[in-house]
Design brief:
Oligomer: single chain
Order of helices and strands: EHEEEHEHEEE
Strand order of the largest sheet: 2-3-4-1-5-8-7-6
Largest sheet: 8 strands, mixed
Number of helices: 3
Structural class: alpha+beta
InterPro entries: Glyas_Bleomycin-R_OHBP_Dase (IPR029068), MeMalonyl-CoA_epimerase (IPR017515), MMCE/EMCE_epimerase (IPR051785), VOC_core (IPR037523)
Enzyme class: isomerase
Number of strands: 8
Helix content: 10-25%
Keywords: Isomerase, Metal-binding
Radius of gyration: 15 Å
Organism: Sungkyunkwania multivorans
Distance between the termini: 23 Å
Pfam families: Glyoxalase_4
């Protein structure tokens, strides 16, 4: 793993959260994007090398909607940038982690993504991210 790629925060209303984080970070979001397969609309903020991803559910059965219903708004996941996501998935499976995606899938911000189950990562949902060679 190369670095923390971003921290994902589940929010009820992306427009309100964008205003809050713009004030907090002193800069507007640089991208809003919908990931239809996940039922989520995302917004990204950047401060130096650090990124925050806000996530709003677009349908009631989406993972973000379920997360907010169960836990409320807040930190949803920590994403790590990896060089070779398929090799990293294989390595982590061998180490005993439960991988939620056997194959990487298209995520937001031109990334291939896969997730590790929080029951094997001390209660934290971990996202693996690799820059996609194909632009969205």
């Amino acid at each position: 793993m190369k670095k923390i790629e971003h921290i994902g925060i589940a929010v009820k209303d992306l427009n309100i959260a964008n205003d809050v984080f713009a004030k907090l970070m002193g800069t507007p979001h640089y991208k809003v994007e919908e990931v239809e397969s996940e039922g989520v609309r995302t917004s990204f903020f950047k401060s130096g090398p650090n990124k925050i991803e806000l996530l709003e559910a677009t349908r009631p059965e989406s993972p973000i909607a379920k997360f907010i219903e169960k836990r409320g708004e807040g930190i949803h996941h920590i994403a790590f940038d990896v060089e070779d996501i398929e090799a990293e998935i294989a390595r982590l499976k061998e180490e005993g982690f439960v991988v939620l995606n056997e194959k990487p899938k298209k995520g937001a911000d031109n990334k291939l993504v896969a997730f590790l189950h929080p029951k094997t990562t001390n209660g934290v949902l971990i996202e693996l991210c690799q820059e996609s060679v194909i632009n969205n």
